[in-house]
Amino acid sequence: MPSNAISEAVSNRNMVYLDTPIRGGTVSAKEGSLIVKLGGDPSACEKVKDMLRAISNSIYHNRPFPVACIQYKQSANSERQALQLTGNDETVE
């Protein structure tokens, strides 16, 4: 189910959904240095920041992106990086 559909479904129950991609691997997780990107209602994002500090000191609220846009933005960044790696690989050969 897409993030925007989940957000809409929970808002009908007086809850808030935050889109929260987390970047980093197991080493970053052990060090507490994961990168957390929050998307959604700004006041809800502020309420969870202290809890998220247990896993990260790098917490960003991606204003003005609403829920689901963060996933699309993250996907676009991943695709761009993959294309750069492919391009670099082609130039080496």
| Radius of gyration over all CA atoms, rounded | 16 Å
Percent range of helical residues: 40-55%
- The secondary structure category is mainly alpha
Largest sheet: 3 strands, mixed
Task: Report mean pLDDT, rounded to a whole number.
Answer: 75
Find the count of extended strands (DSSP E, 2+ residues).
3
Q: Write out the strand line-up for the largest beta sheet, numbering strands in chain order.
A: 1-2-3
Uncertain segments are: none
* Cα shape: flat
Quaternary state of this entry equals single chain
Strand content: 5-15%
Distance between the termini: 41 Å
* Continuous helix count: 4
SSE series = HEHEHEH
What distinguishing features does this structure have?
mainly alpha; 93 residues
In short:
This protein is mainly α. It is built from 4 helices and 3 strands, in the order H-E-H-E-H-E-H. It has a 3-stranded mixed sheet, covered by helices on one side.
Write the layout of secondary structure elements.
Layout: H1 3-11, E1 22-23, H2 26-31, E2 35-38, H3 42-52, E3 58-61, H4 69-92
Parallel strand pairs: 2-3
Antiparallel strand pairs: 1-2
